[in-house]
Amino acid sequence: MTDLSNNYIPRELSWLSFNGRVLQEAADPSVPLIERVRFLGIYSSNLDEFFKVKVAELKRQVIINKAKDKDNDDTVQLLKNVQNEATRYQKTLNHIYKELLSELGNQNIFMRDNHNINEEQKKWVVRYFQRHVLKHINPVIIDADTDLVSFLRDQFTYLLVDMTSKEGVTHALIEIPTDKVPRFVKIPSEGADIVNWMFLDDVIRVGMHKIFEGLFNYDKIEAYSIKMNRDAEYDLNGDIDRSVLENMSESLKQRLNAMPVRFSYDANMPEEMVRFMAKELKMSSIDSMMGGNRYHNFKDFLSFPNFGSSRMENPSLPEIKSTQFDTAITPFDAIAKKDVLVYYPYYSFDYFTEFLRHASYDPKVSSIKINIYRVASNSRVIDSLMHAANNGKSVTVVVELKARFDEANNVKWASRLTQAGVKVLFGLPTLKIHSKLCLITRHEDGKVVRYAHVGTGNFNEKTARIYTDFALFTANPKVTKEVDDVFTFIEYPYTRPVFENLLVSPLNARERITFMIDREIENAKQGREASIHFKVNALVDEPLVMKLYEASQAGVKIRGVVRGMCSLRPGIDGLSENIYITSIVDRFLEHPRVMIFHNGGDEEMYISSADWMRRNLDFRIEVGCRILDEDLQKRIKGVLELQENDNRKARIIDADQRNVYVQCIPGEPQIRSQIAIHDYLQEQEDLIADGEKE
Questions:
Q1: How far apart are CA 15 and CA 566, in angstroms?
Q2: Residue 459 Cα distances to 322, 397, 434, 440, angstroms
Q3: Cross-strand partners of 533
């Protein structure tokens, strides 16, 4: 059995390497300038969640081990390594940020602060502050009774104000109200071809005296940007020993709840103020304190406005039309004729919402079943489900209340659905439901016919525009019967259905995937061709990593595309020399999960909602579906081959996680897979349309 001690990359460090690939996009001069700025926002948003979940989890483990007198050396060292690596990337971000400001300046787009505006601009900013900002400012004066741990919110940046007089120093906190006022404010410029913009932070700095004058005496006033991230209290990977957590005393749980895990501050802030805040926030030696930019919450750059020309953003791609859906009278006619596959965001999510909308009033439809993990804030999916209930359909919605950071949204939807007469199920207390299933039952000519959707992404109109995902629509009873069995299992978990064409976690997915890898191993040992192609967002499950090492050593050719965490070390002689893995980060977020096993020439292909992680295989209800239609097999394989051959946006995942770009060999065509896939899918649709005409 392979020893993983030196051949398994900790998932936390692997995740930071993934976010480093996001940061590479901000530095890539081939990316349009405004998009590069927005990648800073993606990086920052990712990092916030990382600290709130993964680093917080490590911190909890350290505290629990200490309370249980367990050895803590490895966990403490990993936490230090994570913090050091995060600090290294922070320096890279600072450098890229300065470069981007310079490049924006080259386009006559200038960032101004409270120190480099003229008197006319200052007057304008003060008026803007008084009209639009001041009403949202509610300072907190820090005294001995102020509980900063309870007060600070981790979605916001604050200005820590230092008012100095002969009598002493007064500290105050101002929350920057980015939920009420835009973070980026366009201010008057010196000419028509020049754009000046300002952080809301600096607008507040300019208007600072309007907040405190007449109420406090001070000779000098300064303000420094700070931000805190809290323990989000969610177990992202299911790594912590749950029996330990469940047996901890209530007092320990209370001590762990929502404690700070990262404190970020302006590196120019005086050292005594840093120490003051660290003490007030009860920061410990295992917490991260990061001195950085004058500005924090770079996640706001996700919505950085384009102050320049359209060429500074990605051009939109023409929407691909599904010939099968568009030439049919109803979605059910199209699906009954032949399985339909769409690939977001190249196809519109409207194909699914129309599927559901038709079902909501179709007199032949008797029932709708669907599971909801994340939906849009203004969801047509939810609207159709409520309309279906109003039309007398039997509607069952499984709502996952534990969808991380979407809990409040899902509670709201569950309440509205219940009021509309929808049967709402909340799944199982021990298993998060992450599958992407919808099942519609119709009565056609005296027969019961089921129509199923099995996908790799959420039923979410917003994310379907920026995430790549497969969605299979099928009326094949080999699949639809098993989809119905999944819903039965969710409602009645004591049942144990048998699945032949679905991989269902935690019932058969791990066992079946292991079996298919073992089959390739046996074929390789027999001298037959053996290969595995897969695409996932994360590969961190230790048993699967070991099994892939075993397959490589047997001679199985393994090709992977892994967007995020990858704990496997590819390309090591004697261990993984037959494994080659790349990662694609580009304008869309890669999200599908695909598996193809050679199987002696009789390929088995699956799309799935599950990553190769312990949580997805053992602690969630996930569903993978075997692709039975040969034409759709070829289409998915064509998409995956383009991704495997990407030489523009693919990075090599090597044993040292260096994130080196795949190089285009001279004389070979350049392939940027996310663009090439659009052209490929359009060609496929043109062929289908030509076939329809014949």
A1: 8
A2: 18, 12, 11, 15
A3: 559, 596
Catalytic hit among 434, 453, 533, 598:
434
DSSP assignment, residue 431? B
Specify whether the CB–CB gap between 43 and 22 falls below 8 A: yes
pLDDT of 250 > 70? The answer is no
- Assigned token pair, 33: 């300038």
Q: With beta carbons less than 8 A apart as the criterion, state whether 130 and 210 touch.
A: yes
Give the closest residue to 342 by CA, choosing from 359, 364, 326: 326
Q: Which tokens go with 51?
A: 């600290």
What DSSP string describes 71-93?
--HHHHHHHHHHHHHHHHHHHHH
Residues 172, 151: contact at Cβ < 8 Å?
A: no
DSSP secondary structure of 589-629: EE--EEEEE-GGGS-EEEEES--BSHHHHHSEEEEEEE---
Query: Phi, psi at residue 44, to the nearest 5°?
Result: -65, -40
- What is the model's pLDDT at position 691? 80
Give me 196's structure tokens. 């000046």
Nearest to 432 by CA among 464, 406, 469: 406
Instruction: Using the Cα atoms of residue 526, residue 527, residue 533 and residue 538 in order, give the sign of their dihedral.
Output: positive
With helix as H, strand as E and coil as C, how does 169-190 read?
EEEEEEECCCCCCCCEEEECCC
User: What does the pLDDT look like over 610-660, one tens digit per residue?
Assistant: 999 999 999 999 999 999 999 999 999 999 999 999 999 999 999 999 999
To the nearest 5 percent, what fractions of the chain are helix, strand and coil?
Answer: 40, 25, 35
Type of residue at 362:
D
- Cβ density class 221-234: b for 16+ within 10 Å, e for less: bbbbbbbbbbbbbe
Q: What separation in angstroms does the CA of 51 have from each of 16, 255, 297?
A: 11, 18, 13
Active site residue 434: yes
Residues 289, 295, 299: CA angle, nearest 5 degrees: 90
Cα gap 27→97, rounded to integer Å: 9
Question: Assign residue 591 a region: left if phi > 0, alpha if psi is -120 to 50, beta otherwise?
Answer: alpha
454-510: pLDDT as tens digits: 999 999 999 999 999 999 999 999 999 999 999 999 999 888 899 999 999 999 999
C-alpha 505/C-alpha 541 separation (Å) is 14
pLDDT at 693: 63
Instruction: Supply the pLDDT for residue 375.
Output: 81
Cis-peptide into 345, omega within 30 deg: yes
Residue 64 CB-half CA count within 13 A: 21
Tokens of 128: 């803007």
Termini Cα distance of the chain = 57
